[in-house]
Design brief:
The structure holds two protein chains of two kinds.
Chain A: H1 15-20, E1 24-28, E2 31-36, H2 40-49, E3 52-55, E4 60-65, H3 69-76, E5 89-95, E6 101-111, E7 114-119, H4 124-135, E8 141-144, E9 149-155, H5 159-164, E10 179-184, E11 187-192, E12 201-207, H6 212-221, E13 228-229, H7 232-242, H8 276-285, E14 290-296, E15 307-310, E16 313-324, E17 329-336, E18 346-351, E19 354-361
Parallel strand pairs in A: 3-13
Antiparallel strand pairs in A: 1-2, 3-9, 4-7, 4-8, 5-6, 6-7, 9-12, 10-11, 11-12, 14-17, 14-19, 15-16, 15-18, 16-17, 18-19
Helix pairs in contact in A: 2-7
Chain B: E1 8-9, E2 14-19, E3 22-27, H1 29-35, E4 38-42, E5 49-50, E6 55-61, E7 65-69, E8 74-79, H2 82-85, H3 89-92, E9 101-105, H4 117-127
Classes of the chains: A alpha+beta, B alpha+beta.
């Protein structure tokens, strides 16, 4: 756990609510954040079986405006911005020239000359500097709107029915990876059908100075759905059951999106983008390692940095690991050499000087409930 | 936080209940609360020897890994096999069905070095 002193930590608009709800607060990416309320397993299952609400206001937001916005984004990110329609969202990464990952992010398009980006909390400042640097050659304005933006995630199969009660636009026709402007309770919001849990659900962005009552209203309205507030610990187990990569663990400045299984967001055929040349070379040379899912074949818990063995020889390392509350088994993501990356390959994980049998699997570990 | 009066404690949050030269060992209410949901307990083997202040096993929660330290030396005469399938008993009944092992004490005098309930309560208050 981080040793940051609490005096330097930033707090979200919902900080007092978390304290009243009895959350355990811990330093995370410079923020004092709720890691759990009642318990990680029951919070996890609450989202899988019903609906939960997460404060994710620590995430960073950036606004990009100007007539060359699209052109800048095409240069900045690996995925293809060209085909995006208004009010659609694209998952992508942005890379350094050497192909290492700056961050993974969501690009939201209002129009050809106005987008907003949602980036990881820990990378927010670094990303803003990076985007501004690339943007210098374009006719655009880039603003960091993180401080004035609160973000909530409402996730789980009941999230549409719950939010529809408070929302002035139809959610039924809001498709996966699309967003609308809406009034929710008394707040002007952007509501998107996205999330980091694998369940159907929404993310709301709203003015942070007015946001506190919105959290309380959703909790109150959600009582009939047995809604619970969900901490960052369950956010991690939920995302890992889906095999979603986490920046800082599974993807970093030293990993390539191709190795990380994110080739589907790297469009090497599109015009120039930062990192294209390096990624092309990597692809031609063949990947040295691959990020794959791994599950323990006996009871136990996987953790980041555990070594992976094939017939006693080290062949890789875990980057994420946990205990899956849905499956009751240890699951993780690990980089292994390509010859050991086939689904079904029997390997072993080094846990406290023992080699415990494990098997390569294709994530998601649990069937997703997202609404396409 | 519940600290039963009939037990002795370690600074690492294990408890020990002595009965006729044998002793049952577990982790405290405070410890389980700090760990969160316990999902795996690695216990010493039956008939193995444990030594005071040495690691004797591991408790894993979803969040973290925590070593178990032997509160006394002795031979393991029973392990709580229920924890293999229901490790959550450590959370729900840390002083009861969530016990971890039973040992035959090799030197009962060692217990004098352990914390009394009053001392342990004070320690928890400081860590809280």
């Amino acid at each position: 756990m981080s040793q940051e002193s609490s005096t330097e930590l930033k707090t979200t608009p919902f900080y007092n609510i978390h304290k009243e709800l009895g959350a355990k607060l811990v330093p995370f990416a410079g923020w004092d954040m709720p890691i759990q309320y009642k318990g990680v397993i029951q919070e996890h299952l609450c989202v899988r079986n019903g609906v939960g609400i997460f404060d994710v206001s620590h995430m960073g937001e950036m606004d990009i405006r100007g007539k060359e916005s699209k052109k800048l984004l095409q240069k900045l990110v690996t995925n293809d911005i060209e085909k995006m329609l208004d009010h659609s969202i694209l998952y992508t990464v942005m890379c350094y020239e050497d192909g290492g990952v700056v961050d993974d992010l969501l690009v939201h398009r209002f129009s050809e000359d106005h987008y907003f980006l949602c980036v990881n909390a820990a990378n927010s400042d670094k990303d803003f500097q990076w985007v501004r640097k690339i943007a210098a050659a374009y006719d655009v304005t880039v603003s960091d709107t993180s401080a004035e933006t609160a973000q909530l995630a409402i996730q789980g199969k009941d999230s549409e029915q719950l939010l529809q009660r408070l929302c002035d636009v139809s959610l039924n026709d809001l498709r996966y990876y699309h967003f609308k402007k809406a009034k929710i309770h008394k707040n002007d919001c952007i509501i998107s059908r996205t999330g980091y849990t694998g369940e159907d659900g929404f993310e709301l962005y709203t003015d942070s100075s007015l946001a506190e009552p919105l959290f309380l209203k959703i909790l109150e309205e959600g009582k009939s759905f047995n809604i619970q507030p969900i901490g960052l610990a369950a956010r991690d187990t939920l995302r890992l059951e889906m095999g979603y990569a986490l920046y800082g663990n599974d993807i970093t400045a030293k990993t390539s999106p191709l190795e990380a299984g994110l080739g589907w967001v790297v469009k090497l055929q599109k015009e120039d983008f930062v990192g294209k040349e390096s990624l092309n070379k990597q692809k031609e040379a063949g990947l040295k390692r691959k990020l794959v899912g791994i599950k323990l074949l006996q009871r136990g818990v996987l953790r980041p940095h555990y070594p992976v063995f094939a017939e006693g020889q080290p062949v890789g390392e875990l980057t994420s690991g946990t205990f899956s509350p849905s499956l009751n088994m240890g699951i993780g993501l690990c980089y292994v050499s390509p010859e050991h990356s086939q689904v079904g390959t029997r390997l072993a994980v080094g846990i406290r000087n023992q080699q415990v049998p494990a098997e390569i699997v294709k994530p998601p570990f649990v069937p997703p409930g997202v609404k396409h | 936080m519940e600290v039963p009066k009939d037990l002795r404690y370690t600074i690492e949050h294990e408890w020990i209940r002595v009965n006729d030269g044998k002793a049952v060992i577990g982790i405290t209410q405070f410890a389980q609360d700090q760990l969160g949901d316990v999902v795996f307990v690695e216990m010493p083997a039956l008939d193995s020897q444990i030594t005071i202040e040495n690691t004797m096993g591991v408790v894993e929660s979803v969040k973290t890994v925590s070593d178990l330290y032997a509160p006394a030396s002795g031979k393991v005469v029973a392990v709580n096999t229920d924890l293999e399938t229901q490790p959550e008993l450590v959370n729900s009944e840390p002083y009861g069905k969530g016990w971890i092992i039973e040992v035959e004490l090799s030197d009962p005098k060692e217990l004098e070095s352990l914390l009394t309930p009053e001392q342990y309560s004070k320690q928890c208050e400081q860590e809280q």
